[in-house]
Amino acid sequence: MKHISSLLQRTLCLLSLLIFCSASYAKPHPPYLTESYCEGLVEQFVGSSMRSLNSYVNQHFNLEYRGGIRNTIHFLDQRIEWLTECNDYLEDTSESTVFYNEGLTQDIFAAIQALSRELQHVQDGVEYSDETGTNNPTPFIKQRYDELAQLVERYHTRVLLDKQFE
């Protein structure tokens, strides 16, 4: 009986230690992160952020105005930071991702980073010569934006289909 009691004590001690250690290694998340906050952030990105990017890339992009390029880089970097934070939170708490599944989420993140990187190249003075030899990065920026827009549209279509069949 004494042997069983000692074995039970050691088992309980080991389990307590495992629980304590696993809790101390859990990723801490800011208290404002909730599923509802993350859903709202994604809706805002898919809606107004993408409309704003579309307007900038297709109507207002101009090499002469470096401030707009800088602001757009900052805008994209900020959004990827916020979306990544939400994605980490959702993966840890509900085993889901911000953009439907892991593959699409990573593709959208990569497209945001590619557009930001392309704009950074323009900001840094990298020249994009067209067939006439003129520096014209606009087609490259538009291509990066279009890649992002197609991925976001794929996500948005999926959301609309899911809502239709609820």
SSE arrangement:
Blueprint: H1 2-24, H2 35-60, H3 66-93, H4 102-123, H5 138-164
Helix pairs in contact: 2-3, 2-5, 3-4, 4-5
Keywords: Signal
Signal peptide: 1-26
The unreliable regions are none
In percent, how much strand structure appears in the residues?
under 5%
Termini, distance in Å?
A: 58 Å
How many H/I helical runs? 5
**Global outline:** elongated
Q: What structural class results from the helix and strand content? A: mainly alpha
Number of domains: 1
Helical proportion, percent range: over 70%
Signal peptide: 1-26
Keywords: Signal
Architecture overview:
It is a single chain. By secondary structure, this protein is mainly α. The protein has one domain. Helix content is 76%, strand content 0%. It contains 5 helices and no strands. The chain has helices spanning 2-24, 35-60, 66-93, 102-123, 138-164. Helix 2 (35-60) runs antiparallel to helix 3, helix 2 (35-60) packs antiparallel against helix 5 (138-164) and helix 3 (66-93) packs antiparallel against helix 4.
